[in-house]
Amino acid sequence: MRLSREDVLHVAWLARLELDEEEVERFTWELNQILEHMEKLKELDVTDVEPTSHVIPMTNVFRPDVVNEPLPRDEVIANAPDATEEAFRVPRIVEES
Amino acid sequence: MELWQLTIHEAHQLLIRRDISSVELTKAVLERISQVEDLVKAFITVTDELAIEQAKEADRRLKHMEDVTPLTGIPIAIKDNICTKGILTTAGSRILYNFKPPYDATVVEKLKKAGAVIIGKTNLDEFAMGSSTENSGFFPTRNPWDLNRVPGGSSGGSAAAVSAGECLGALGSDTGGSIRQPAAFCGVVGLKPTYGVVSRYGLIAFASSLDQIGPITKDVSDCALLLQFIAGHDPRDSTSIKMQTPKYVDALVPDVKGLRIGIPKEFYAQGVEKAVSSAVLKAVEELVEMGAEAIEVSTPTTDYALAAYYIIAPAEASSNLARYDGVQYGYRCKPTPNDIVAMYSRTRKEGFGREVKHRIMLGTYALSAGYYEAFYLRAQKVRTLIRRDFDRAFEKCDVLITPTAPSVAFKLGEKIDDPLQMKLSDVCTIPVNMAGLPAISIPCGFQDGLPIGMQIIGKLLDEATILRVSYAYEQKSGLRNLQPPLNTK
To answer: Is residue A38 one of the residues assigned to a domain?
Structure first.
C-alpha cells in the first residue's frame, strides 16, 4: 500500500475537504488502486523529455494596461451566501487583541 | 416533419423566406421540451420566457433584414458549465445550486450577438467530470435512442437535447471526450476544436490546459456554422490563439480525392467492441472508394494517455476547484462553524459529489510535496511523447480515423460503481485533448439500433479538413439529422 490512512487524512486537509469515516476508507482504497494503475507511466523513458504544460506555446501574453468597467459590486455580492452591502462575510480570522 | 426536427441551416432558410417566424420555431421547440423532458431530463434550466423575448427580437431583425446571421432566431441550448448572465449556472454541482453569473461567457455573448435564441441550460456530470451524465448533482439524463441507457458525458444533456429535438443545436465542453463521446452515443455530430480556437472565458474551469468549448449539432453543416460563430481570439482568455478565423463553412465540399487517412492501430485494440471497429473501418472503405487512401499508422504512447490524463486533469481540477469555499458564491454549510477552515472543509464536503471529491483528492496528492515530480511532471513529459506520436503519424497522413468510444451507449447504472470501466469509455478521445488537436465525432452506423460514432482527428488548427471529410462521408452515407425512436412515436 502506497498510501496510509494518515496520508489520506493529510491530503484531505491540504484540499480543505472534511471526510467522514466511510470516505476515509473508500479514498484510501480508491487512491491506492488508481496509483497502482499510474505505475504504468514508469514504463516510459522520459529522460531529456520536456514537459508539456500547454500545447500551443505562449508566454507573456500582454494586453494594454487599460482600466475597464468592473463587474457591478451589488451583482457580484448578490451571489454570496453571507455578505454586507459591500463585502463578503466570513467567520472571524484575526483574533481580537 | 415537425419544426423541432429541422437542422439550423434548414430552419434558417425558412426564417429568411419568412415561411416561419422565430417565435413559431421557438414555441415548437418549447412545446417539444414539455412533451419529452420528463423522459429525457436533458435540461437543468429551461429559459422559456427569455427565449420568447429573444425570438421576438430575432423576428424584428428578420423582418427588416438587419444584422441577420445564419443563427438569428435559432433555439440553441448551452451546457450548464458555461456562464449565462443572470441565468442559473450550476456546472451540475450542488455547490453552485443558486449561482447566477454576473456576466456572459464569450461564446454566449457571441451567440446573442448573432441573434440566437438561448433555450436553456443542459445537464452534465458535476464539473464535467464523468462519461455518462450520471454524476450530475441533480439527476441523470437519458438517451433518446433508449431511455434505459446513458447519453454519454459529460455533455450528455446537450447531446440528448439535440437528438430529441429539444433544441436545434447546442454547446458542450470537452476535456477528455465530453463533446465527442455523448455525440457518438446520441447519434449526433460533436466537434472539439483545437485548444485555443474557442475562448474559455466564462467556462467554469475543470482542467484548464485541456478544456475546450465546441458545437453539438444534427449534421456537419450545422457544426461548421456553429463553430464559425463561437471561434476567434479573445483578450479575456490568455490561451486563446491570435489568428484570423477561417471560413469553416467553405470546407463543406464532398471531396476526399487524394486524402490520406491514417488508421492508428492502437485505437482499435483496447477493448473496442467488434461491431464498433467494423462500422468505422467500413466507413473508411467508403471514403477510399471516394478517392481517399488509407494508411496504417502507429501511436504507441497513446496507450499511456489515460494514465497521464488521470494525473493531469485531477491536478488541474484540484487547483481550479479550490475557489468553491462558501465565500463568494454558491453553497455554504449551515450552521457556519466559527473556524474558517472548518467552514471551508464542511462546505466542500457537503457541496461536492463523490466523483469530484475523488478527483480533488487524487489531484491534490499528485501535486503535493514529494510527489509532484513522480506524478505530475512525469505525466506532462508523457504528454510530450503523445504529441510527438501524433506529429509523426501526421507526417504520413492528413487525418486519423478511429472509433469515438469503444462501445455504443451503455445502460444507466452499468458502470457507475466501476470507475475504471467508466474511464475506459474515453480511451479513444483522451489522447486528442492531451495533444490539443481538433476532432469530430459523426454517426457511421448502428449496433442493435444504437448509433456508433466515428472520430476524425485533424492536425493542429486544421478543423477545415476534418469538416470536409465528415461532410463527404455524411453526403455519401445519408447519416445526418438522425431521428431516435422517441422522435417518431
So the answer is: yes
Catalytic residue among B27, B41, B79, B459: B79
In the set B21, B155, B178, B470, the catalytic residue is B178
Q: Considering only the beta carbons, identify the residue of A12, A82, A91 that sits closest to B338.
A: A91
* Interatomic CA distance for residues B357 and B335, integer angstroms: 22
Please confirm, yes or no, whether B79 is among the known catalytic residues. yes
Q: Do A80 and B377 touch (CB under 8 A)?
A: no
The CA distance from A97 to the nearest CA of chain B, in Å, is 17
Q: What pLDDT digit, counting tens, does each position of B169-180 carry?
A: 999 999 999 999
Cβ B35 vs Cβ B3: under 8 Å: no
Domain ranges, residue A33: 5-42
The SS3 assignment for B189 reads strand
Q: Do B209 and A12 touch (CB under 8 A)?
A: no
Summarize pLDDT for B193-226 with one digit per residue, the tens. 999 999 999 999 999 999 999 999 999 999 999 9
Q: Which residue of A has its CA nearest to B322?
A: A15
CATH number, domain with residue A25: 1.10.20
Altogether, the residues listed in chain B come to a count of: 489
Mean pLDDT value of segment A79-85: 95
- How high is the pLDDT of residue A45? 95
CA distance A18 to chain B (A): 5
User: Could you confirm whether B178 is annotated as catalytic?
Assistant: yes
A8 touching B (Cβ < 8 Å): yes
Active site residue B154: yes
- Work out how many CB contacts closer than 8 A connect A with B: 153
For residue A30, being part of any structural domain is answered with yes
CB-facing half-sphere around the CA of B159: CA atoms within 13 A = 41
Of B44, B13, B32, B144, nearest to B486 by C-alpha is: B144
In the structure grid, which three cell numbers stand for residue B158, read together? 446537450
pLDDT score for B465: 98
Q: Is the pLDDT of residue B334 over 90?
A: yes
The complex's ipTM? 0.95
Q: How far is A21 from chain B (nearest CA, A)?
A: 12
All three cell numbers of B287:
471514403
Distance CA B434, CA B210 (A): 7
pLDDT at B474: 98
Contact (Cβ atoms closer than 8 angstroms) between residue B434 and residue B459 = no
**pLDDT tens-digit profile of B418-435?**
877 888 899 999 999 999
Which band of pLDDT confidence, cut at 50, 70 and 90, is reported for residue A56?
confident
Identify whether A73 is part of a domain: no
Q: Does B329 touch chain A (CB under 8 A)?
A: yes
Look up residue B281 and give its three cell numbers.
473501418
The x, y and z cell numbers of residue B405, run together, are 468510444
Q: A37 falls in which pLDDT band (50, 70, 90)? A: confident
Q: Number of folded domains in chain A?
A: 1
